[in-house]
Design brief:
The structure is a homotetramer.
Chain A (H helix, E strand, L loop, with lengths): L10 E6 L7 H11 L3 E7 L4 H10 L11 H10 L6 E4 L6 H9 L4 E4 L7 H13 L4 E3 L7 H11 L6 E9 L10 H6 L2 H4 L4 H17 L3 E9 L10 E8 L4 E7 L8 E8 L2 E6 L5 E6 L4 E5 L7 H4 L12 H20 L13 H19 L5 E2 L2
Parallel strand pairs in A: 1-2, 1-3, 3-4, 4-5, 6-9
Antiparallel strand pairs in A: 6-10, 7-8, 7-14, 8-9, 10-11, 11-12, 12-13
Helix pairs in contact in A: 1-11, 4-5, 5-12, 6-9, 9-12
Amino acid sequence: MTKFANRKGPIRLGMVGGGKDAFIGAVHRIAARLDGEYELVAGALSSTPDRAQESGAALGLAPDRTYDSFTAMAQREARLKDGIEAVAIVTPNHVHYAAAKEFLRRGIHVICDKPLTATMAEAKKLVAEAEKSDALFVLTHNYTGYPMIRQARAMIQNGDLGAIRVVQAEYAQDWLTEAATGKQADWRTDPARSGAGGSTGDIGTHAYNLACFVTGLTPTSLAADIQSFVPGRRVDDNAHVMLRFEGGARGMLWCSQVAPGNENGLSLRVYGDKGGISWCQEDPNKLWFTPFGKPTQLLTRGGAGASAHAARVSRTPGGHPEGYLEGFANIYAEAARAIRANREGKQPASEVIYPTVQDGLAGVRFVDACVRSSTRNAAWIDLT
Amino acid sequence: MTKFANRKGPIRLGMVGGGKDAFIGAVHRIAARLDGEYELVAGALSSTPDRAQESGAALGLAPDRTYDSFTAMAQREARLKDGIEAVAIVTPNHVHYAAAKEFLRRGIHVICDKPLTATMAEAKKLVAEAEKSDALFVLTHNYTGYPMIRQARAMIQNGDLGAIRVVQAEYAQDWLTEAATGKQADWRTDPARSGAGGSTGDIGTHAYNLACFVTGLTPTSLAADIQSFVPGRRVDDNAHVMLRFEGGARGMLWCSQVAPGNENGLSLRVYGDKGGISWCQEDPNKLWFTPFGKPTQLLTRGGAGASAHAARVSRTPGGHPEGYLEGFANIYAEAARAIRANREGKQPASEVIYPTVQDGLAGVRFVDACVRSSTRNAAWIDLT
Amino acid sequence: MTKFANRKGPIRLGMVGGGKDAFIGAVHRIAARLDGEYELVAGALSSTPDRAQESGAALGLAPDRTYDSFTAMAQREARLKDGIEAVAIVTPNHVHYAAAKEFLRRGIHVICDKPLTATMAEAKKLVAEAEKSDALFVLTHNYTGYPMIRQARAMIQNGDLGAIRVVQAEYAQDWLTEAATGKQADWRTDPARSGAGGSTGDIGTHAYNLACFVTGLTPTSLAADIQSFVPGRRVDDNAHVMLRFEGGARGMLWCSQVAPGNENGLSLRVYGDKGGISWCQEDPNKLWFTPFGKPTQLLTRGGAGASAHAARVSRTPGGHPEGYLEGFANIYAEAARAIRANREGKQPASEVIYPTVQDGLAGVRFVDACVRSSTRNAAWIDLT
Amino acid sequence: MTKFANRKGPIRLGMVGGGKDAFIGAVHRIAARLDGEYELVAGALSSTPDRAQESGAALGLAPDRTYDSFTAMAQREARLKDGIEAVAIVTPNHVHYAAAKEFLRRGIHVICDKPLTATMAEAKKLVAEAEKSDALFVLTHNYTGYPMIRQARAMIQNGDLGAIRVVQAEYAQDWLTEAATGKQADWRTDPARSGAGGSTGDIGTHAYNLACFVTGLTPTSLAADIQSFVPGRRVDDNAHVMLRFEGGARGMLWCSQVAPGNENGLSLRVYGDKGGISWCQEDPNKLWFTPFGKPTQLLTRGGAGASAHAARVSRTPGGHPEGYLEGFANIYAEAARAIRANREGKQPASEVIYPTVQDGLAGVRFVDACVRSSTRNAAWIDLT
């Protein structure tokens, strides 16, 4: 029996983290608002009480639903008649597990930023919590929400590329080319808060997740050579990874935060024995598809070659670019579909897809394997 | 004294038009939601009562605030204590004037889709209504909301391009390449509802507005050769226009709805004696800038070359593409800033920019001039 | 009976113009060498005797075949047993007619740079000379030599685009943004040497020729608004032109030499009722093709979608870019095929295509019409 | 004392291989012709006598200089007063060593296609032969001839990128996606003729050479995971390689011949602590340069940002694309400069650069290391 069997209307949402100057919290809020499916009503926006209150007021939250800690929020909201039905966790990584646990145990759905946790131990514990909870757990590997990524996945499932042979994934940035300061750089380069991975955790997990999501392949092992180029940096800022997949496909993954000229250069190329595709996050409405032996086609979101898989997560006609926020909002929209089905004790429709706690575990395992492989001179690490 | 002097919190919004199957109404609603500044509380969503009620229910509007006509809505909402503070008018063009008038006369702010009206006569009357009203009038020439368009405008104002010589604007689509049917094609090719212009009104006005907005130049005359290529079509589906501007700059504008391979190919290139810029709507986060005699620079939204003019209408870091909906939402955000200032009897900050009723009049005049010029074998028509 | 009935082997070539510091002469020489079909053996490389001798020596010409004037060269070479079979005329425009006449009258084939002449009167006289000569006349509208341009033309002939409706041609440069000096700028902005057209003659003729070549359409009239933006410039440096074609198609042509950020931005887009194509000179190995209602295809030279029309003027596999010089060399290769057929008193194979003296006349007429139209406030000028 | 101390004029060239249906022989001939520096006068164009004669006749070679074997050619040409001064070796890889030796021992300069040889043993012997010969040895790693590659190298030498950290090189093709037949596929997938490497030898060596050429870095070790995806293929058709360089830079190299949608997708990206660059062979006139913290610049061959290093190997103004053949011809032009200096017993000017026999040895070592690493489960192989 679900906790929210009688709920109607918009989903009441709480937020952990995301106070003033946070980056990803604001993104989650826009994503939640975009389709009108959620209503933000509570928050534990900062671990600093003054900042928590100030941030809550700025967002128009009622003072009595602006909490100083996620524990307080979980306890009280769970008892309120109109308490939150879902919570967005947008803190630094090391807080994810402790916060998620509080809500999952009270049957409140969790929408959590990635990577899942800062450590493998926490990741496994969070999987256990999620599995024993009636509540849903949604991880915001937001790039899986892009319409043309959905289409790419469907094309591969449909056999349009044949048997997959080669997967090239990368995510390049340049914002940490020099020793950086500021709230974002600070925690993301602190292993105590971000976990053992720097670029591997922050962006490598996105590339890894995207490669798996689109191809449907299961990685079996990896060999990684990771670096911390900036003097004094305590986590990796660049990683070269070779991948092997079940069935014999091979891949490469490069992530870097020290590659000048790259802003959010997440790209994926997949090649099979019947065709190839190419996609870049910075130009996300386009999917290049080459059926082997025929001209390359430019498939556009909303265009003649777009499928129903792209259309169901699109909001505008072709040629009107949708971007990062719409893709992010698609994760929230999928979560909303699942939450609404959950109200009725049902599974959502089969086409509803969102990243799960298992995807999160795979991501933390990826980071862990990269670090261990690199310590052992890029030895192959088993991922299964 | 403004009608809403005591209002606080989100702006209560009504909508005229935008019922089931409408395209632009849904866009306006997303744009209104994105930043959390508006709350949709009332609607006259269709001129067909059943459809109006059905559409209102689907949007979660209260039944007593779902109206069968914009007149009824204007009358009742104006009397409600918590009545709407602003209305979005998203009907076919021929309804804009009559609807806007009802709200302007009652001090309710109007956010109206473009083109302003279907005829010059209506356009002039609407200008008069807007000018005598205390309420604001905002026209959704949404492309002016793109951050890099704001930056381009600021660069030109700053003299980065020197004296402007040449302006090349175009907006190409292909969706009307064949005789089209369906709700969207239907009214947009019916002169009684769209006005005398087809492609000129629907998209040419966007290109024309964008060229003027970015360059700051005043067009003085145009010569147009317009066509209706599809047999039986009653409005133009392609137009070639030569432009002359005050100060001697010259321009060309091409709009077409019969150009296969173009989805929403709105682009603008401006050349001065010190440099040139180029921008395309389908890749809106990039602005190409060439200072004469130096390498071309790729300025990106959020990147190293982005200015405060772009930043203030941005929501995410560089490399995370923002698109059509964010640009549209920026018009709503600017309108919200103006409305909030209006509550306090003030002007908004000087950097707040939105298209006005005068821009709308200029757009209708553009369509009118294109039609008249073409009738006279592309003779020059005065625009001043 | 052709003058060179018994010739075998490479075609002995002379050159008029193209001495030290010339730009286009060097291009012609590379184009002639590239396929090994020509052997440069004589030259009247400059009208200044010292420079003529010096330039001839630098190119390894025999001193007795380095002439001080084209008249001397024509007279002597025509009498030599192993005299030149063809001459390349690469002087400023005002010399084309006088030089070409000398060789045509002696049965020596002429390969002449564009535009054909500096004036309409000369153009007509040159047509008459060419028509009464047994020798061939080839005009180097070199962009017609690009493989994907050949393919585009063949596709349109084949009906792949259906009935053509819209033609958008442009050629934008920036090198004359400021008052320029130097050999190239000097004569190209001097009406006595370049003719009445500046940008219209130098580059507009290329865009015009390309549009006609690819579409196969016959222009019937044009309306032009031409400008000389740089103070003191005696010829146009920017032109906006509207075009009407037989059968109802319409077009726009923009040429400019004052558009910062454009190097040699020659592009062509053509739209019919069944599809559209787009091509840019700066990326010439790609042709974008959209069959209406289907995804856009990227056709590449040497790729899966390339036809025999592209292949016969290609030298390397797909993905190995061929450029300007190869396209130029294709004109020389086509001329060589025609000259070899001429040796045997035959017509070349039907697929051999090169720009003719009639194309040259059409180009000069285009310039003349632009100038006259602009003088008459962009009135329509008949081109038939 | 050089053998050709008294020679003047064009360099008489012989060719080994390159008969009918050969691909790269024709490319070498165009490259040799393009600047008029060479004259092809002799050939051992095929190991099949009939085909050798037929091919020689088709190229206009004198019958007595059309040889049935490279040995016969080397012997006789070395004795002729006007014998060849240089020979181009364009056979399958396994013939390179035996052929080159014959000419080097007779003081005839060798211009040899890559990879240097089919085996490490041969490569070392060829290095020894080249080092004890007075003749020059030039390896046609033709991509080093591209102007913007020259510029990139010069920029890195100049410190524009700071200390290099990351090198991403790739060369992707698709022509061997399926089991292929035909002359080209045949020998390139036969280890007896191509050597142990398939894609690694044919294209991986190009990417590897380019990375080293541009960065100036010395690779110290590599780890490779190579595959033969097509059933029955005896050489690799895909390779993933991790690279380590002296000084701490790291790199990745991917080469593939089974990546549908890639024609000749050779690309190089280099990142240092002060900036980054990106270049693609299929669009070779552009070099993207990002000084860290500033906007990305588009540097074009012949454009405002092009340096003298690019200009000295350019033939046309910016915006007139130069391509594969011009880049290839630049190797021949550099070789010609060296050969001319050699005639006078001098070294060529310091800016003259061409790939040497040592570069060839490095390439064969790269292939050998890839194969050995892959056999040992991607263990690191020392390259020093």
